[in-house]
Design a protein that fits this description.
Strand content: 25-35%
Structural class: alpha+beta
Radius of gyration: 12 Å
Shape: globular
Number of helices: 1
Largest sheet: 4 strands, antiparallel
Distance between the termini: 28 Å
Length: about 70
């Protein structure tokens, strides 16, 4: 994947975060939804297309994953 300019991306933690280190942060860049590890923000970013992000969030809300 091509390198992204993440300098303009505002990442945020979930409001459900307990303040610990078990969180991910999300942000957007164009049509991409970005996910990174809050403990290691320089370690890499997962980029998901809008439709993939939407499907993932829907499955999480329905309880498809043991989170």
């Amino acid at each position: 994947m091509a390198s992204m300019d993440l300098g303009r991306v505002v990442f945020r933690k979930s409001s459900y975060s307990d303040g610990g280190n078990g969180c991910v942060e999300t942000g957007t860049l164009g049509s991409q939804h970005l996910v990174r590890d809050s403990k290691n923000p320089e370690g890499g970013v997962l980029a998901l297309d809008r439709d993939v992000w939407s499907a993932l969030v829907s499955r999480i809300r329905r309880g498809a994953y043991d989170l």
